[in-house]
Specification:
299 residues, mainly beta, eight-stranded mixed beta sheet, binds 2-acetamido-2-deoxy-beta-D-glucopyranose, 21 strands, 37% strand
């Protein structure tokens, strides 16, 4: 057995007690799946503990990171069910204990987040999505797509969505991202008013990709942040076959699909024309441009 994580893969592979070997020209993997001795971690009742999950390793310690988007947070006890992210050590943890991570969000139910930004964290669903940078000292992304800006609450409550970038040590300061907030933008639905960024997210080297399915009256969009330059790339909405209620950004992934030097960012629009659509974008200057699209075949 490579480690005790293997049983967690069971439901994904559907492989029963089988020793199997995958061979390809360039690489070979093989492992057993131990179905008799699963490692089970659990969290608070009704917290949706396990809604998102990933493996993390740092400094010779292996962890399972778990999102519980309906949990109450011990670090933000005056916020109503903001959700929480837990870390569970895989080895040397006989009690299978998981501890909540301090994302440094504080305990204020309302906080200023910009010139025309007042945060409301109640029911923000922190931990709805988790992603890890694929490298030895990988950072972690944790998002709360229902985070709201209530600055214009007399007219509109703006569910922009919020993400935190967490350091590989799982401690210390986290970097906040509110990719859809712009000063003085105030309309619900229009542009990024109800963008709900972070319902899906992925890391790709120095880029953080966040799906934002509520933008432009639920046409949706993709937000890409470059950690090195501290700036965002914007998708030219004219380059896509824009339909309201397509939910572009409901799922995202990224990789070097077209060539080893190109970063390709894929995003799903599951409600596009009732059958769904997938787009692939690449970076061109400060923009994301479409390089591929495929439509669903069945309505
Ligand atoms: C969070 O706290 C509220 C208020 O105390 C409570 O009603 C709710 O059930 C708690 N949620 C969970 C998941 O424990
Ligand atoms: C991110 O920004 C850095 C610094 O401006 C730049 O060198 C790098 O090419 C950018 N990364 C991508 C993938 O565009």
């Amino acid at each position: 057995l490579p480690d005790r994580m293997a049983p967690l893969l069971r439901h994904r592979t559907g492989v029963q007690n089988v020793f199997y070997v995958c061979l390809s020209i360039s690489l070979a993997y093989s492992y057993n799946i131990d179905l008799q001795h699963p490692v089970v971690f659990s969290g608070p009742d009704s917290s949706f503990f396990g809604y998102s999950v990933l493996e993390h390793y740092h400094d010779n310690t292996r962890w399972v990171i778990v999102g519980a988007p309906r949990a109450n947070s011990s670090y933000s006890s005056s916020v109503l069910s903001p959700g929480a992210v837990y870390k569970c050590r895989i080895h040397s943890n006989p009690e299978r204990r998981c501890t909540e991570m301090d994302l440094g969000r504080g305990n204020k139910p309302r906080e200023t987040c910009g010139k025309t930004c007042q945060a409301d964290r109640d029911d923000e669903w922190m931990g709805v999505s988790l992603a890890r940078q694929d490298r030895a000292d990988g950072k972690i992304l944790a998002c709360a797509h229902r985070w709201k800006n209530v600055y214009y609450a007399s007219e509109y409550i703006l569910p922009h969505g919020y993400c935190s970038i967490i350091s590989p040590t799982l401690q210390g300061r986290t970097k906040p991202l509110i990719p859809c907030y712009e000063d003085y933008k105030q309309k619900y639905g229009e542009e990024h008013g109800s963008c709900q960024a972070g319902i899906a997210g992925v890391f790709m080297e120095e880029l953080v990709v966040m799906g934002a399915p509520g933008s432009y009256y639920w046409t949706g969009t993709v937000k890409v942040y470059n950690m090195t330059s501290d700036s965002f790339y914007s998708l030219n909405q004219d380059s896509i076959d824009s339909h309201r209620y397509s939910y572009l950004g409901y799922a995202v992934t990224a990789g070097h699909f077209s060539s080893p030097n190109v970063i390709d960012i894929a995003a799903g629009a599951p409600q596009h024309s009732g059958s769904g659509k997938v787009y692939i974008f690449k970076i061109d200057g400060v923009s994301l441009v479409k390089s591929f699209q495929a439509s669903g075949k069945m309505v």
